[in-house]
Amino acid sequence: MSHSPASSKPRVLCAMSGGVDSSVTAALLKDQGYQVVGAMMRFWPDDKRTDTFDSCCSPDAAYEARRVAEQVGVPFYLLDYREQFQRHIVGPFIEEYAQGRTPNPCVNCNTKVKFDELVKKARMLGCQYVATGHYVRRVEVGGEVQFWRGDDPRKDQTYFLWGTPREALPYILFPVGELEKPRVREIAAERGLLTAQKPESQNICFVPGKLQDFVAEHLPPEQGDIREIRSGEVVGRHLGTQFYTLGQKKGLGLFQTHRVRWVVHLDPATQTVWVGDYEDCLWTRLRAEQPNYLLDLNDLPSTLEVQVRYRTTPVEARVVHADSSGFELEFAEPQFAVAPGQSAVLYSGPRLLGGGLISGHARDLPA
């Protein structure tokens, strides 16, 4: 492989997590002749609890990222983002549960910390680009940079990037976006990179053990009624709306344990968990707030696809209304348990158009 002279390509800040994807990202950029600077964002606090930050963002991962940077032959910095992480990620995570919503901290982390703060840091370090190991394709159409779904459908990560500031798009690179995961591991093995066989991280990095225990520690249990959505009848008791999610049917604590019910609505103000039939959990519309659009609003198609959870297939929807404060969509077919606090991510085919935080669904509660 021919290497360009070091000075011919710009400097790139490569976000390294100590995982295989970002390790290969750094190696590929170096091959392509970029001047690569490796960096890892430190999120874990000094009093790191056991079982937290164990996979991606841990002291061990930082050691591995530094070692990989040495293997690839690039400088490495550990950047302190503890305060921003606490402010933008952990604090709002608890607050969302207090309001009866179901947050997605990984979306927040990518939006508020990685692609906002990191792009600023790259400028300070004299880097023209930021690169990450996300499975996302960076496509240029008529001089405009767009984010498209990664070529490996099982690994596509555009869902987490809807909040990327539009003006940052031209400055972000995704070298593994056109590869499949097994090939990425192969490249790492061929290079002898020590992260080649490192397993995936699945958990929320700052939550030790069970999510419910973590929530209980920050939001003490508070009893309330479980009510039937159609009649208002009290059918059970609960220990706090923060321990339930929309669409949940197991472990509800109903008086008649044989009854099958789904959580339809959470109301922390009255400490009420509303339950109903499966049909009561189907939404025809959604409303979203804090939107971010990756194109001009007047170019937003009137019909598009929306994805309401990371692991679900996008579904067709009609744009009822969209402006700078939010949008409302009507689904082509009713959708099950669309949870406030989660992301509604907008697509046109493989292209990421933006998204927003689900704030509500159209449903009347009994008096």
Account of the protein in words:
- It is a single chain.
- The chain has 367 residues and is of the alpha/beta class.
- It folds into 3 domains: 9-191, HUPs (Rossmann fold), CATH 3.40.50; 221-276, SH3 type barrels (Roll); 280-360, Translation factors (Elongation Factor Tu (Ef-tu), domain 3).
- It is 22% helix and 30% strand.
- The chain contains 6 helices and 17 strands.
- It has helices at residues 20-31, 59-72, 82-98, 105-124, 181-191, 211-218; strands at 11-15, 35-42, 76-80, 129-131, 136-141, 144-149, 172-173, 224-228, 234-238, 262-267, 272-276, 282-293, 303-307, 315-323, 326-336, 343-348, 351-360.
- The strands form 4 sheets. A 6-stranded antiparallel beta barrel has the order 12-15-14-13-16-17. The protein has a 5-stranded parallel β-sheet with strand order 3-2-1-4-7, sandwiched between helices.
- A hairpin with a 7-residue loop joins strand 13 (303-307) and strand 14.
- Residues 1-6 have low confidence and may be disordered.
Q: TL;DR?
A:
With 367 residues, the protein is α/β, with parallel strands linked by helices. The protein is built from 6 helices and 17 strands.
Explain the layout of strands and helices.
Blueprint: E1 11-15, H1 20-31, E2 35-42, H2 59-72, E3 76-80, H3 82-98, H4 105-124, E4 129-131, E5 136-141, E6 144-149, E7 172-173, H5 181-191, H6 211-218, E8 224-228, E9 234-238, E10 262-267, E11 272-276, E12 282-293, E13 303-307, E14 315-323, E15 326-336, E16 343-348, E17 351-360
Parallel strand pairs: 1-2, 1-4, 2-3, 4-7, 8-11
Antiparallel strand pairs: 5-6, 8-9, 10-11, 12-15, 12-17, 13-14, 13-16, 14-15, 16-17
Helix pairs in contact: 1-2, 1-5, 3-4
